[in-house]
Design brief:
Length: 200
């Protein structure tokens, strides 16, 4: 059984950019919904794998279960990264190794932020925009994924992400996804992102 990730802050901690209602609904209805479905699917399997390893070894599951396992497993991973990336601590600029690599691959943080926002606004339908590490090329990339696809499925390591499903923002922003994307940069905590990035 996969344990849930506790929400690392109170439901009202990200106001005014994300309301307590949005955060409560997103965490309890959507994230935990994916987790519950995943644990139900995994009951008949006895595999000692991490969530990341499950994605890379999806062929170890029965063919009829793979689609649903991958969808819900990726939904769990994507949501955990999304919630984990944010805080109300105003650490909104990258530091350390991540700052160096962003400057190397994008020229500057301002260039990176502009490219990330453009990519997020260009996403069609539901999905995510990610900053990922291509370990083979030793390079940072910005990618979009559809629905609940995970960067792990494409041999990329996700570093930070914005959830662009309507349930992530619609109660607060209605159809103004652009405002949500811009405001999200007031929530990203690069100190937390850097702590994980140093482990890659």
């Amino acid at each position: 059984m996969i344990e849930k990730m506790p929400l690392p802050y109170n439901y009202n901690a990200l106001e005014p950019y994300l309301s307590s209602t949005t955060l409560y609904t997103h965490y309890n209805r959507h994230y935990l919904g994916y987790l519950d479905k995943l644990n139900t699917l995994l009951k008949k399997y006895n595999l000692n794998l991490t969530k990341e390893e499950m994605i890379k070894n999806i062929d170890k599951f029965e063919l009829k279960d793979r689609g649903q396992i991958l969808f819900n497993l990726s939904g769990v991973l994507n949501h955990e990264l999304y919630f984990k990336n944010m805080s109300n601590k105003k650490n909104n600029l990258p530091q350390g190794k991540l700052k160096e690599d962003i400057n190397r691959d994008f020229g500057s943080f301002e260039n990176f932020k502009e490219a990330f926002i453009i990519s997020a606004n260009n996403l069609m339908g539901s999905g995510y925009t990610f900053l990922v590490k291509d370990k083979l090329a030793n390079k940072l990339l910005i990618i979009n994924t559809s629905n609940q696809d995970s960067p792990y499925s494409y041999d990329f390591i996700p570093i930070m992400t914005i959830d662009l499903w309507e349930h992530a923002y619609y109660l607060d922003y209605l159809n103004n996804r652009k405002e949500y994307i811009n405001n999200w940069f007031n929530l990203i905590d690069f100190q937390l992102v850097e702590e994980d990035y140093k482990k890659i």
